[in-house]
Write a structure and sequence with these properties.
Elements: H1 3-13, H2 20-37, H3 41-46, E1 54-59, H4 65-75, H5 87-97, E2 100-103, H6 111-126, E3 130-135, H7 153-162, E4 163-168, E5 185-186, H8 191-204, E6 210-217, E7 220-228, E8 231-235, H9 236-240, H10 246-255, E9 258-264, H11 272-287, E10 291-296, H12 310-323
Parallel strand pairs: 1-3, 1-4, 2-3, 5-10, 8-9, 9-10
Antiparallel strand pairs: 6-7, 7-8
Amino acid sequence: MNLNKLFINHCKKNNLEINPNQLDLIEKLNQFYNLNFNKSFLKKIFSKNNSKLGFYLQGDVGVGKTMILNFFYENFKNKENKKENIIDAFVKKLKKKYELIYFDEFQVTNIVDAMILGSLFKKIFDENIKVLFSSNIMINDLYKDGLQRDQFVPFIKIIKKMCFEENLKIKEDYRKSNKNNNERYFFPLNEKTNFMINKSFRLLTKNKVKNEISLSIKGRKFIIKNFYEGIARFDFKDLCNKNIGAEDYLKISQKCNFIIIENIPNFNDSNSNQQNRFITLIDIIYENKIKLLVSSEKSLSNLSSSNRLAEPFKRTLSRLHELTSKKN
């Protein structure tokens, strides 16, 4: 597979900048492909010497990690599906359906995930399943300072042993480029900001019918009070101060094509739980390509983080830049 040529064509087709550092990385992905998927005679000869079944790509937010690994994954021939239960049964079923799996924006933020990852990935690699990761955190720094991190160390050793680790260095965060003017991010929280939000909301919902939507998630209800034919308006506390999470946000995203979130606070160690929910919420809004308008206590460049979530929050800030820009 000539990834270099395919990638250049991909960039031209999508009007993307062709960066030499990205081209170098494409060549390393091509080597990874040849070692693991090329069924030629030479592959059969040298495959016994290949112990690297994964590819872990680390780099700052907005440098193109996801774009590049999406490109690789989409050009990989086999398209597959789904899941199951207990680790051994799950991985065996995975093996029947997948030769390559891809984890985008990989991170570990809680002890439950940390404790099962070692066993899970040992089995994945034992089954000779190949893996792609993108992350803005180096392998050695995953779950850094996390609770009972000693139980996470076996996973780090497995990933270090089984993956090529590469770093994509580009100074510019493409999501924050001058092309992206943040027209839908309002700060600070004052009367002027409130006036601008209300004005935007009136324009967005003009001639649209207001409804109150009730969503059912595992037996509990979530009410969207301000809903106008796909446009929903929320206060931050209604989305992130309550004990809700990814399943709720996914349900909301299925109903909305434009979301307004008001009164985003500055984050610190005292409201890290709310920040964690906000990170999940923005990821889901981003993945579902929903337009976003927000009001916040601070500007994007001055929005702070709790210590524990500082690294994953870099991705959130970068995504907020894109989601609230004129381009989006």
